[in-house]
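ok trying again, last paste got cut off:
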Amino acid sequence: MGSPSETCESPRLCSPSAAWLRILDLPARLQTPPPSIGIGFSCAQLAIDDVPARVRHPPPGFSRPSRVLPPSPCEILVPPKLPKPVSENDKSSTKRQRLCSDYEDDIYANLRRTERNPEERPRPDYLKTVQKDRVTPKARARLIGWMDAFVRHHDLVDGTLHHAVAYVDRVLSTRAMNAPTDYDLRLLGAAAVFVAAKYEDGQRTVLKLDPDKIAWYGRFATRKEVLDMERHMVAALGYQLGGPTAHTFVNRFTKHAQGEEELKIQCIAHRYADESLRNYACLGYLPSVVAASVIYLTRFALKQLDVRPWNTALQELTGYSALDLALCRRAMYYFSQSLSCDPQC
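nice, full thing came through this time. structure:
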């Protein structure tokens, strides 16, 4: 039986059921898999003068690239859309209006603005442009599987994994690793989980988790390594830890789930959102797009003959039409196929 540090696969992030692999009602032009899905996306490069001042001296094992490339809003593959105002005369809006508080639409609009903040988004092509292929999509997926097992082993709160993965991607988008090993990646991932858990659950995390437990679980040399990496990480993140994730938006989109069927959709959508973390291609999409896409896929997998996977009410709630989600759904579909062929990816 392998040690915890060697367990990189996660039952919760296993390949999806065959039910939704029958997907998708995509336009004909989207049926052919893209030549470089999950490898990288073309992006505009920013001048070095545009690099935020928060980028400080790199931690041990990292080097600063000659040109640090922070994320740019132009990298978003699906243009963001905010939901239309609720209409008194729209029957599909009436139910939603009764369920929402006076400020819910304003809160959602703020989440949508925050998710497009370039300082809180990783580069969708950082493995190629910053890490120079020293870290591969497959190695990243294995790391996230290990991080998920770590979160479950310590029974950390929902949302911890999503924030932790976001921290890892953001750090690796600005700091190049020198000949990274599995040990280096695990240390980075463990520190990210520690920071995310404290952000999500505050004082209760301290009772469950401390640097000594992390060092034992990850088989790190000392607790000081964990604390040093944590300190370097939060500095590299500019102490901006609270950006919305796909988990945030799945919660929002299913906030008023009622009845067994809707609660089942909510549960499975969260599982698909967790799986999307391993999909490097999903970095090219806003978290709200990923969340809406997993709800579409869940409804598609569970649909009855008289229920469509997407409708006017969902389009109004999320701000996206089915066509807006087509590219993200396709990326998830091909990644799921790759999982069925190679569970180690």
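cool. The first strand starts at residue 62 and ends at 63. The CA atoms of residues 198 and 204 lie 8 Å apart.
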